[in-house]
Protein backbone atom coordinates (compact mmCIF):
# COMPACT_ATOMS: atom_id res chain seq x y z
CA UNK A 1 0.00 0.00 0.00
CA UNK A 2 1.38 3.39 -1.04
CA UNK A 3 1.24 5.89 1.84
CA UNK A 4 2.29 9.54 1.67
CA UNK A 5 2.32 11.90 4.65
CA UNK A 6 2.86 15.49 3.59
CA UNK A 7 5.08 17.85 5.55
CA UNK A 8 3.57 20.99 3.99
CA UNK A 9 0.15 22.29 3.04
CA UNK A 10 -1.69 21.72 -0.21
CA UNK A 11 -1.92 25.51 -0.63
CA UNK A 12 -4.67 25.49 -3.25
CA UNK A 13 -7.05 23.35 -1.19
CA UNK A 14 -5.97 25.13 1.99
CA UNK A 15 -6.97 28.49 0.53
CA UNK A 16 -10.41 27.05 -0.30
CA UNK A 17 -10.74 25.62 3.22
CA UNK A 18 -9.82 28.95 4.78
CA UNK A 19 -12.24 31.01 2.67
CA UNK A 20 -15.02 28.46 3.23
CA UNK A 21 -14.39 28.59 6.98
CA UNK A 22 -14.41 32.39 6.89
CA UNK A 23 -17.70 32.62 4.96
CA UNK A 24 -19.62 29.94 6.89
CA UNK A 25 -18.21 29.07 10.28
CA UNK A 26 -17.33 30.88 13.50
CA UNK A 27 -13.97 32.58 13.59
CA UNK A 28 -11.11 30.20 14.37
CA UNK A 29 -10.63 31.91 17.73
CA UNK A 30 -14.17 30.99 18.78
CA UNK A 31 -13.60 27.44 17.57
CA UNK A 32 -10.45 27.20 19.67
CA UNK A 33 -12.28 28.32 22.81
CA UNK A 34 -14.99 25.72 22.25
CA UNK A 35 -12.40 23.03 21.58
CA UNK A 36 -10.32 23.80 24.65
CA UNK A 37 -13.43 23.80 26.86
CA UNK A 38 -14.87 20.61 25.38
CA UNK A 39 -11.74 18.46 25.59
CA UNK A 40 -10.22 20.23 28.61
CA UNK A 41 -6.90 20.76 26.86
CA UNK A 42 -4.10 21.80 29.16
CA UNK A 43 -1.06 20.52 27.26
CA UNK A 44 1.11 23.61 26.54
CA UNK A 45 2.28 22.18 23.20
CA UNK A 46 -1.27 21.66 21.96
CA UNK A 47 -2.42 25.04 23.24
CA UNK A 48 0.47 26.64 21.35
CA UNK A 49 -0.52 24.77 18.19
CA UNK A 50 -4.12 25.94 18.48
CA UNK A 51 -2.96 29.51 19.08
CA UNK A 52 -0.69 29.34 16.01
CA UNK A 53 -3.55 28.08 13.80
CA UNK A 54 -5.81 30.87 15.08
CA UNK A 55 -3.20 33.55 14.36
CA UNK A 56 -2.55 32.23 10.84
CA UNK A 57 -6.28 32.27 10.04
CA UNK A 58 -6.76 35.71 11.56
CA UNK A 59 -3.75 37.14 9.72
CA UNK A 60 -5.03 35.98 6.34
CA UNK A 61 -8.62 37.08 6.99
CA UNK A 62 -7.58 40.52 8.22
CA UNK A 63 -5.44 41.17 5.12
CA UNK A 64 -7.82 39.92 2.43
CA UNK A 65 -8.62 42.72 -0.05
CA UNK A 66 -12.09 41.24 -0.71
CA UNK A 67 -15.28 41.68 1.28
CA UNK A 68 -16.95 38.74 2.97
CA UNK A 69 -20.05 39.39 0.86
CA UNK A 70 -18.04 39.18 -2.37
CA UNK A 71 -16.32 35.97 -1.33
CA UNK A 72 -19.57 34.54 -0.01
CA UNK A 73 -20.99 34.24 -3.53
CA UNK A 74 -18.57 31.37 -4.18
CA UNK A 75 -17.69 30.12 -0.69
CA UNK A 76 -21.03 29.90 1.14
CA UNK A 77 -22.32 26.38 1.67
CA UNK A 78 -25.39 25.99 -0.47
CA UNK A 79 -28.74 25.02 0.99
CA UNK A 80 -28.84 21.26 1.43
CA UNK A 81 -25.18 20.90 0.49
CA UNK A 82 -21.86 20.45 2.23
CA UNK A 83 -20.30 21.97 -0.87
CA UNK A 84 -19.87 25.55 -2.09
CA UNK A 85 -20.26 27.00 -5.61
CA UNK A 86 -16.45 27.11 -5.68
CA UNK A 87 -16.36 23.30 -5.62
CA UNK A 88 -18.58 23.16 -8.71
CA UNK A 89 -16.39 25.70 -10.47
CA UNK A 90 -13.03 24.13 -9.65
CA UNK A 91 -14.27 20.50 -9.76
CA UNK A 92 -11.26 19.33 -7.80
CA UNK A 93 -10.05 15.87 -8.70
CA UNK A 94 -9.10 13.04 -6.40
CA UNK A 95 -5.46 14.12 -6.27
CA UNK A 96 -3.63 16.86 -4.36
CA UNK A 97 -3.44 20.18 -6.21
CA UNK A 98 -0.03 20.80 -7.80
CA UNK A 99 -0.38 24.56 -8.24
CA UNK A 100 -3.15 27.09 -8.73
CA UNK A 101 -2.04 27.68 -12.32
CA UNK A 102 -2.25 23.98 -13.16
CA UNK A 103 -5.62 23.57 -11.43
CA UNK A 104 -7.09 26.51 -13.35
CA UNK A 105 -5.67 25.17 -16.59
CA UNK A 106 -7.12 21.73 -15.89
CA UNK A 107 -10.60 23.22 -15.50
CA UNK A 108 -10.18 25.44 -18.56
CA UNK A 109 -9.19 22.45 -20.69
CA UNK A 110 -12.15 20.32 -19.56
CA UNK A 111 -14.54 19.31 -22.31
CA UNK A 112 -18.23 19.97 -21.80
CA UNK A 113 -18.78 16.23 -21.54
CA UNK A 114 -16.24 15.82 -18.73
CA UNK A 115 -17.51 18.90 -16.90
CA UNK A 116 -21.06 17.57 -17.10
CA UNK A 117 -19.96 14.25 -15.62
CA UNK A 118 -18.00 15.90 -12.79
CA UNK A 119 -20.92 18.21 -11.95
CA UNK A 120 -23.22 15.25 -11.58
CA UNK A 121 -20.63 13.37 -9.51
CA UNK A 122 -20.59 16.30 -7.06
CA UNK A 123 -24.35 15.86 -6.63
CA UNK A 124 -23.93 12.12 -6.13
CA UNK A 125 -21.15 12.63 -3.61
CA UNK A 126 -23.47 14.80 -1.49
CA UNK A 127 -26.27 12.18 -1.70
CA UNK A 128 -28.54 14.77 -3.31
CA UNK A 129 -29.54 12.60 -6.23
CA UNK A 130 -30.41 8.93 -6.12
CA UNK A 131 -27.37 6.74 -6.69
CA UNK A 132 -29.10 3.60 -7.93
CA UNK A 133 -27.95 3.00 -11.50
CA UNK A 134 -25.55 5.92 -10.99
CA UNK A 135 -23.12 4.66 -13.63
CA UNK A 136 -25.85 4.67 -16.28
CA UNK A 137 -27.00 8.11 -15.16
CA UNK A 138 -23.50 9.55 -15.50
CA UNK A 139 -22.74 7.92 -18.83
CA UNK A 140 -26.01 9.07 -20.45
CA UNK A 141 -26.32 12.47 -18.78
CA UNK A 142 -27.30 15.54 -20.80
CA UNK A 143 -27.45 19.23 -19.92
CA UNK A 144 -31.21 18.89 -19.54
CA UNK A 145 -30.68 15.93 -17.19
CA UNK A 146 -28.33 18.02 -15.06
CA UNK A 147 -30.89 20.82 -14.79
CA UNK A 148 -33.54 18.30 -13.78
CA UNK A 149 -31.21 16.90 -11.11
CA UNK A 150 -30.57 20.41 -9.76
CA UNK A 151 -34.31 21.06 -9.58
CA UNK A 152 -34.67 18.14 -7.15
CA UNK A 153 -32.15 19.54 -4.65
CA UNK A 154 -32.86 21.85 -1.70
CA UNK A 155 -30.76 24.72 -3.04
CA UNK A 156 -32.27 28.15 -3.64
CA UNK A 157 -33.15 29.50 -7.09
CA UNK A 158 -30.23 31.92 -6.83
CA UNK A 159 -27.80 29.10 -6.07
CA UNK A 160 -29.22 26.96 -8.86
CA UNK A 161 -28.83 29.83 -11.34
CA UNK A 162 -25.23 30.45 -10.27
CA UNK A 163 -24.32 26.79 -10.78
CA UNK A 164 -25.84 26.79 -14.25
CA UNK A 165 -23.87 29.96 -15.11
CA UNK A 166 -20.71 28.31 -13.79
CA UNK A 167 -21.38 25.25 -15.92
CA UNK A 168 -22.23 26.96 -19.20
CA UNK A 169 -19.71 29.83 -19.03
CA UNK A 170 -16.98 29.12 -16.44
CA UNK A 171 -14.28 31.54 -17.65
CA UNK A 172 -15.53 34.80 -16.00
CA UNK A 173 -15.94 32.91 -12.73
CA UNK A 174 -12.49 31.28 -13.03
CA UNK A 175 -10.90 34.73 -13.37
CA UNK A 176 -12.51 35.79 -10.09
CA UNK A 177 -11.47 32.53 -8.46
CA UNK A 178 -7.88 33.03 -9.58
CA UNK A 179 -7.82 36.44 -7.87
CA UNK A 180 -9.36 35.11 -4.63
CA UNK A 181 -7.19 32.02 -4.32
CA UNK A 182 -3.89 33.55 -5.45
CA UNK A 183 -4.21 36.32 -2.87
CA UNK A 184 -5.13 33.85 -0.12
CA UNK A 185 -2.19 31.60 -1.02
CA UNK A 186 0.16 34.59 -0.93
CA UNK A 187 -1.07 35.56 2.55
CA UNK A 188 -0.75 31.98 3.78
CA UNK A 189 2.83 31.89 2.54
CA UNK A 190 3.53 35.05 4.53
CA UNK A 191 3.07 32.71 7.52
CA UNK A 192 5.38 30.05 6.09
CA UNK A 193 7.72 29.87 9.10
CA UNK A 194 4.86 29.36 11.56
CA UNK A 195 3.17 26.86 9.23
CA UNK A 196 6.40 24.89 8.82
CA UNK A 197 6.68 24.35 12.57
CA UNK A 198 3.14 22.97 12.65
CA UNK A 199 3.42 20.77 9.56
CA UNK A 200 6.78 19.33 10.63
CA UNK A 201 5.23 18.30 13.95
CA UNK A 202 2.21 16.92 12.06
CA UNK A 203 4.43 14.78 9.82
CA UNK A 204 6.36 13.43 12.79
CA UNK A 205 3.19 12.62 14.74
CA UNK A 206 1.40 10.83 11.90
CA UNK A 207 4.51 8.93 10.88
CA UNK A 208 4.60 7.56 14.42
CA UNK A 209 0.85 6.81 14.51
CA UNK A 210 0.93 4.91 11.22
CA UNK A 211 3.82 2.66 12.22
CA UNK A 212 1.34 0.34 13.91
CA UNK A 213 -1.94 1.06 12.12
CA UNK A 214 -3.46 2.72 9.06
CA UNK A 215 -5.74 5.70 8.59
CA UNK A 216 -8.83 3.51 8.07
CA UNK A 217 -8.33 1.68 11.38
CA UNK A 218 -7.53 4.94 13.13
CA UNK A 219 -10.75 6.61 11.90
CA UNK A 220 -12.82 3.55 12.76
CA UNK A 221 -11.41 3.28 16.29
CA UNK A 222 -11.33 6.98 17.11
CA UNK A 223 -14.09 8.61 15.08
CA UNK A 224 -16.58 5.81 14.29
CA UNK A 225 -15.99 6.32 10.56
CA UNK A 226 -15.73 3.11 8.49
CA UNK A 227 -14.24 3.26 5.00
CA UNK A 228 -13.18 0.54 2.62
CA UNK A 229 -9.41 0.13 2.62
CA UNK A 230 -7.96 1.41 -0.67
CA UNK A 231 -5.36 -1.04 -1.95
CA UNK A 232 -3.66 1.79 -3.86
CA UNK A 233 -3.00 3.60 -0.59
CA UNK A 234 -3.66 7.13 0.62
CA UNK A 235 -2.20 10.60 1.09
CA UNK A 236 -2.48 12.63 4.29
CA UNK A 237 -2.11 16.42 4.15
CA UNK A 238 -2.20 18.79 7.12
CA UNK A 239 -4.66 21.66 7.30
CA UNK A 240 -4.43 24.70 9.59
CA UNK A 241 -7.79 26.18 8.54
CA UNK A 242 -9.83 23.16 9.69
CA UNK A 243 -7.31 22.44 12.42
CA UNK A 244 -9.58 20.01 14.31
CA UNK A 245 -11.41 18.41 11.35
CA UNK A 246 -10.78 15.80 8.69
CA UNK A 247 -11.80 16.31 5.05
CA UNK A 248 -11.93 13.01 3.17
CA UNK A 249 -11.64 12.74 -0.62
CA UNK A 250 -12.41 9.10 -1.27
CA UNK A 251 -11.76 7.36 -4.57
CA UNK A 252 -14.94 6.01 -6.19
CA UNK A 253 -14.12 3.10 -8.47
CA UNK A 254 -17.65 2.91 -9.91
CA UNK A 255 -17.56 6.14 -11.85
CA UNK A 256 -13.95 7.38 -11.80
CA UNK A 257 -10.55 5.79 -12.40
CA UNK A 258 -9.27 4.33 -9.15
CA UNK A 259 -6.77 6.51 -7.28
CA UNK A 260 -5.35 6.86 -3.79
CA UNK A 261 -7.65 8.23 -1.09
CA UNK A 262 -6.90 11.73 0.10
CA UNK A 263 -7.24 12.99 3.68
CA UNK A 264 -6.82 16.60 4.80
CA UNK A 265 -6.32 16.24 8.54
CA UNK A 266 -6.36 19.05 11.08
CA UNK A 267 -3.08 19.82 12.81
CA UNK A 268 -4.44 18.73 16.22
CA UNK A 269 -6.99 16.09 15.13
CA UNK A 270 -5.08 13.07 16.39
CA UNK A 271 -4.88 14.49 19.91
CA UNK A 272 -8.34 16.09 19.92
CA UNK A 273 -10.47 13.04 19.21
CA UNK A 274 -12.60 12.34 22.29
CA UNK A 275 -12.26 8.56 22.26
CA UNK A 276 -8.74 8.89 23.63
CA UNK A 277 -10.35 10.10 26.86
CA UNK A 278 -12.78 7.20 27.17
CA UNK A 279 -15.19 7.00 30.09
CA UNK A 280 -13.95 10.15 31.83
CA UNK A 281 -15.02 12.25 28.87
CA UNK A 282 -18.47 10.67 28.83
CA UNK A 283 -19.02 11.35 32.52
CA UNK A 284 -17.77 14.90 32.27
CA UNK A 285 -20.17 15.78 29.45
CA UNK A 286 -23.22 13.86 30.70
CA UNK A 287 -25.41 16.98 30.72
CA UNK A 288 -24.44 17.73 27.13
CA UNK A 289 -25.46 14.23 26.04
CA UNK A 290 -28.81 14.62 27.80
CA UNK A 291 -29.32 17.98 26.12
CA UNK A 292 -28.53 16.39 22.76
CA UNK A 293 -31.03 13.57 23.33
CA UNK A 294 -33.63 16.10 24.45
CA UNK A 295 -33.91 17.24 20.84
CA UNK A 296 -36.84 15.28 19.33
CA UNK A 297 -35.39 15.08 15.82
CA UNK A 298 -32.08 13.67 17.04
CA UNK A 299 -33.88 11.16 19.22
CA UNK A 300 -36.08 10.16 16.26
CA UNK A 301 -32.97 9.66 14.13
CA UNK A 302 -31.40 7.39 16.74
CA UNK A 303 -34.63 5.40 16.87
CA UNK A 304 -34.70 5.03 13.08
CA UNK A 305 -31.13 3.78 12.82
CA UNK A 306 -31.38 1.48 15.82
CA UNK A 307 -31.82 -1.66 13.72
CA UNK A 308 -30.82 -0.54 10.22
CA UNK A 309 -28.27 1.78 8.72
CA UNK A 310 -29.66 4.62 6.59
CA UNK A 311 -28.13 7.21 4.29
CA UNK A 312 -28.76 10.95 4.60
CA UNK A 313 -31.28 11.44 1.78
CA UNK A 314 -33.31 8.46 3.01
CA UNK A 315 -33.44 9.88 6.54
CA UNK A 316 -34.51 13.24 5.11
CA UNK A 317 -37.39 11.63 3.21
CA UNK A 318 -38.59 9.55 6.15
CA UNK A 319 -38.51 12.49 8.55
CA UNK A 320 -39.74 15.08 6.04
CA UNK A 321 -36.70 17.25 6.70
CA UNK A 322 -34.24 18.89 4.33
CA UNK A 323 -30.85 17.34 3.61
CA UNK A 324 -29.24 20.36 5.26
CA UNK A 325 -31.20 19.77 8.50
CA UNK A 326 -30.30 16.07 8.53
CA UNK A 327 -26.65 16.95 7.93
CA UNK A 328 -26.77 19.34 10.90
CA UNK A 329 -28.26 16.70 13.21
CA UNK A 330 -25.86 13.97 12.06
CA UNK A 331 -22.86 16.23 12.55
CA UNK A 332 -23.85 16.76 16.19
CA UNK A 333 -24.52 13.04 16.76
CA UNK A 334 -21.23 12.05 15.12
CA UNK A 335 -19.34 14.61 17.17
CA UNK A 336 -20.86 13.07 20.31
CA UNK A 337 -19.93 9.57 19.13
CA UNK A 338 -23.52 8.33 19.23
CA UNK A 339 -23.61 7.27 15.58
CA UNK A 340 -21.22 5.60 13.17
CA UNK A 341 -20.52 6.65 9.60
CA UNK A 342 -19.82 4.12 6.87
CA UNK A 343 -19.16 4.79 3.19
CA UNK A 344 -20.36 2.35 0.56
CA UNK A 345 -19.82 3.34 -3.07
CA UNK A 346 -21.30 6.85 -3.36
CA UNK A 347 -23.39 6.78 -0.20
CA UNK A 348 -22.66 7.67 3.41
CA UNK A 349 -24.60 5.42 5.78
CA UNK A 350 -25.36 6.17 9.43
CA UNK A 351 -25.90 3.56 12.12
CA UNK A 352 -26.33 3.59 15.89
CA UNK A 353 -23.20 3.34 18.05
CA UNK A 354 -24.78 0.94 20.51
CA UNK A 355 -21.62 0.53 22.58
CA UNK A 356 -21.46 4.27 23.29
CA UNK A 357 -25.19 4.39 24.03
CA UNK A 358 -24.82 1.46 26.44
CA UNK A 359 -21.99 3.31 28.21
CA UNK A 360 -24.22 6.35 28.50
CA UNK A 361 -27.10 4.32 29.92
CA UNK A 362 -24.80 2.60 32.42
CA UNK A 363 -23.48 5.94 33.67
CA UNK A 364 -27.03 7.25 33.99
CA UNK A 365 -27.91 4.15 35.98
CA UNK A 366 -24.94 4.66 38.29
CA UNK A 367 -25.77 8.33 38.79
CA UNK A 368 -29.52 8.01 39.30
CA UNK A 369 -30.20 4.54 40.73
| Major beta-sheet overview | 4 strands, mixed
SSE order, as H and E?
EHHHHHHHHHHHHHEEEEHHHHEHHEEH
In quaternary terms, these chains amount to single chain
Radius of gyration: 21 Å
Question: How many DSSP H or I helices?
Answer: 20
Separation, N- and C-terminal Cα atoms: 51 Å
Can you tell me the overall shape?
A: globular
Estimate percent helicity: 55-70%
Strand content: 5-15%
Report the uncertain regions.
274-281
Written account of the structure:
The chain is an alpha/beta fold and 369 residues long. It has 20 helices and eight strands. The strands form two sheets. It has a four-stranded mixed beta sheet. Helix 1 packs across helix 11, helix 7 packs parallel to helix 9 and helix 18 packs across helix 19. The radius of gyration is 21 Å and the shape is globular.
Please render the helix and strand layout as text.
Layout: E1 2-5, H1 11-24, H2 28-39, H3 44-63, H4 68-75, H5 85-90, H6 100-108, H7 112-125, H8 134-139, H9 143-151, H10 157-168, H11 171-190, H12 192-209, H13 215-223, E2 225-226, E3 233-239, E4 246-249, E5 261-266, H14 269-272, H15 279-284, H16 286-293, H17 296-304, E6 310-311, H18 312-319, H19 323-336, E7 339-344, E8 347-352, H20 354-368
Parallel strand pairs: 1-3, 2-7, 3-5
Antiparallel strand pairs: 4-5, 6-8, 7-8
Amino acid sequence: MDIFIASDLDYVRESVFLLTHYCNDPLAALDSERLIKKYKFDDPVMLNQIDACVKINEYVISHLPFSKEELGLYFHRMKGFNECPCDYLMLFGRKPAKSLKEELQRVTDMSEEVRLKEFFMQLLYDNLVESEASVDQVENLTGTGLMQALQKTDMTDQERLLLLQIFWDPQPHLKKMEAYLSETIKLLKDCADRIQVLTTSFHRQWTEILKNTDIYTFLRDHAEVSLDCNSLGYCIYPTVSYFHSCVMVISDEETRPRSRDLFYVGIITADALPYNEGDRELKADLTQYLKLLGDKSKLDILTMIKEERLYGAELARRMNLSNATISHHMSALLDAGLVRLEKENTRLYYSSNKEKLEELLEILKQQLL
